[in-house]
Design brief:
Helix Hairpins; endopeptidase fold (from Nostoc punctiforme); mainly alpha
Length: 381
């Protein structure tokens, strides 16, 4: 029916323009042109249907990406909740460990001064009767047994805090990896949607050419292609930026605490600020840790602090947890700043850590840090 209507309209136009009756040859030529145009439109319609199948397939992939994004977001929320719970448990264990350390150290000093064997002998000698001696020895045995139980509990709590620190750190690493995946998927999704729009408009423009609507759709096609190009360029720029940032972070890992102190003293207006040295901390049975920062997410403040201060622990959690983790490991903590110390801030969220490179006053310090704005892209400096 459509073919017939078009033929009638075109024939009328020719009749009006020429003002004469068309010959059979002219009529046949017009019909051939109409048939050719119809054939072209039909072909384009078929191509559009095929293109629509591809569009539907890509849209299915887009929907899958969006579903995956929702799953990752839900997983992040669950992991963050788990991390928060672990932080509370770690803090409580740390308090218990520190409290027991003080008690155990006092008992150790007492044992060194008095001597366990001597105490037993004195107890027996100073007893007025065998019954009293037996009672005193039994009491001392109970004290020794209680001390042994305290030592065993201390050992178990230290093992528990170590396991929880590893689990917490793994949760943090997974959250950061998920966030990176979400960012990458968002870029890919934007580019794919722009390409889809460009493909659809390209076919529509070809068909519209046959139907005398070429100009408008060509403008739309150009705009869509420009948008697709801009999206592709934005994705390329994003990937280049990610690569550059990772390279900067990797390069910054080659710095040392001494180099950062030297840089601080060079830019400082006071020569005295660079004269500080890290104070030694005497603690018995301090754990030995790995000297690399691989246990922390690259680019985070904890990674930067571990890089500059390799003596720090391997699984101390977020920046806000480092003070309690360090105390649990036997390190001295306090509020008096000194060069070489690790400063920890607990803002109620993830917190922040940095290494002190200069002390200006009791309330003002200079530090070397990483990820000071929370984006995970700043190198150590």
């Amino acid at each position: 029916m459509k073919k017939k209507i078009l033929a009638s309209l075109l024939l009328s136009t020719v009749l009006v323009s020429q003002g004469t009756v068309l010959s059979s040859v002219q009529a046949n030529t017009t019909n051939e042109k109409i048939a050719a145009q119809d054939s072209k439109i039909s072909e384009l319609t078929t191509q559009q249907k095929e293109a629509q199948k591809q569009v539907d397939e890509i849209q299915t992939k887009v929907t899958a990406i969006q579903t995956e994004q929702e799953k990752l977001q839900a997983e992040n929320e669950k992991l963050q909740e788990e991390s928060k719970k672990l932080e509370g448990e770690i803090t409580e264990l740390s308090k218990n460990i520190v409290a027991r350390n003080e008690s155990l150290e006092n008992q150790a000093r007492s044992a060194q001064t008095n001597g366990t064997a001597t105490s037993y002998i004195n107890t027996i000698i100073n007893s007025n009767s065998i019954t009293e001696a037996i009672s005193r020895v039994a009491a001392m045995s109970e004290i020794v047994s209680a001390n042994n139980k305290m030592l065993q509990q201390q050992k178990e709590d230290k093992k528990a805090i170590s396991e929880k620190q590893v689990a917490n750190n793994n949760a943090i690493n997974t959250v950061i990896a998920n966030q990176q995946t979400l960012a990458d998927d968002a870029q890919a999704l934007t580019t794919k949607q722009a390409e889809l729009k460009a493909a659809e408009l390209n076919l529509a423009a070809e068909k519209a050419t046959a139907e005398s609507e070429k100009a408008t759709l060509l403008e739309q096609k150009a705009a869509a292609e420009a948008e697709a190009k801009a999206a592709a360029e934005a994705e390329a720029a994003y990937k280049a930026k990610q690569t550059s940032q990772q390279q900067s972070l990797a390069a910054s890992a080659n710095t040392t605490f001494a180099a950062q102190v030297q840089a601080t003293s060079s830019s400082s207006s006071s020569d005295d600020e660079s004269s500080y040295t890290p104070a030694a901390t005497t603690v018995s049975q301090r754990p030995t840790y790995s000297s690399n920062a691989s246990s922390y997410p690259v680019g985070q403040c904890t990674w930067g602090a571990k890089t500059l201060a390799p003596w720090a622990g391997d699984y101390w959690g977020n920046g806000g947890q480092w003070a309690t983790s360090a105390a649990a490991a036997g390190f001295r903590t306090g509020s008096t700043p000194q060069v070489g110390a690790i400063a920890s801030w607990d803002d109620g969220g993830y917190g922040h850590v940095a290494v002190v490179t200069a002390v200006e006053s009791s309330t003002r310090i200079q530090v070397s840090e990483c990820n000071y704005d929370g984006s995970g892209t700043q190198p150590i400096g």
